[in-house]
Amino acid sequence: MPVAIRFTETGGAEVLHATEVDAVAPGANDVVIEHEAIGVNYLDITQRNGAVKVPLPSGLGLEGAGIVSAVGSSVTDLKAGDRAAYILGPLGAYSQSRTISADRVIPLPPGVTPDIAATVLFKGITAQYLLKSTYQVKQGTVVLLYGVGGALGQIMTPWAKHLGATVIGVVSKGSSVDRARMLGCDEVLVWGEGDLAEKVTAFTYGQKADVVYDGVGKLTFEASINSLRPRGLMVSFGASTGAPPPVEVAILNAKGSLYLTRPGLAAHATDVKEYKERATDVLDAASEGIFSTDFWREFPLREAAAAHQAIESGKSRGPVILRPHGGRA
User: Fold this and answer.
1) Quick one: pLDDT at residue 326?
2) pLDDT value for 316
């Protein structure tokens, strides 16, 4: 019987437990994936701790990659033995194998291993829609990006540079500055060291940022708004310090007719055609070496709690994957 991670109550990482589950035979439109690598995302943590509500008891995990072991009778574009990956669908990627709808499964092109797919696909699709749909970053765009040293930032920064942007990165501590510059940031600001908006204004000679990507939330929202040029776009897409405060609509006018959006992955990757187009763009970019496809660390599936603790503690220095069969903790 395959092993999967389950939780019956929200809380700290200790609520995660490995358990044997029944294998599910594929329906006509399903495939079975034997996982070789499973991506760990901050969203998983917020679901586990209750910040994002999910029905309990529940599995966990929204992306995995491996080998197709069986296909349903109506599936024509995948076959047993294919390397493939997926994101979204029901929770349950933290498992040795799973049955999933075939329309969520992306065949992997030559050169893209399951490890690469599990490292970049979920985060890469997030980066793709933020950089190409939420705001069309192009030559000359001035981007202010928080969390440059994190797993998402390590994809967004070089991809934004590839598109021609000037990237101002924000990091949480001075020890991350060199890493941010290596990723391609034109300027790196350390949160808490002086007035961030003033530093953005000075670096851009008064022009400020065209777009701010703020995944921090409550703590940084005001500084982000103040860092935007007139008619600039504030992209609030995360809340690691809590939800941003309510915004008086008049404030957006007073600060220069600003735009404000709160995008989410589901609205950009639920439609199957759109999802597959974005996934193809991400895997093509990975194949071209636009951003790194290395993960920081792997953990055995049974030690998913330790993987969560590494991310929550701030010790992680990039993507984390789970290894369904073994792995180095």
Assistant:
1) 65
2) 82
* Spatial distance between the Cα atoms of 35 and 325, rounded to a whole number of angstroms: 9
Determine the pLDDT at residue 328. 46
Give the span between the Cα atoms of 268 and 218, in whole angstroms.
24
- What phi, psi does 62 have (nearest 5°)? -120, 5
Return the CA Rg of the chain: 20
Mean pLDDT of 300-311: 96
Return all residues near 195 (Cβ < 8 A) that are at least 6 apart.
Answer: 223
Residue type, 229: R
pTM for the predicted model, two decimal places: 0.93
Closest by Cα among 31, 92, 54 to 322:
92
In whole angstroms, what is the distance from residue 281 CA to residue 125 CA?
8
What the chain holds in terms of domains, given with CATH numbers, is 3-121+272-323 (3.90.180.10), 138-261 (3.40.50.720)
**Paired tokens of 308:** 């969560």
DSSP state of 83: E
DSSP letters of 125-164? HHHHHIIIIIS---TT-EEEEE-TTSTTHHHHHHHHHHTT
Tokens of 21: 């589950």
Check residue 9 and give its pLDDT. Answer: 98
Question: Are the C-beta atoms of residues 128 and 290 closer than 8 Å to each other?
Answer: no
- Give per-residue pLDDT as tens, 115-130: 999 999 999 999 999 9
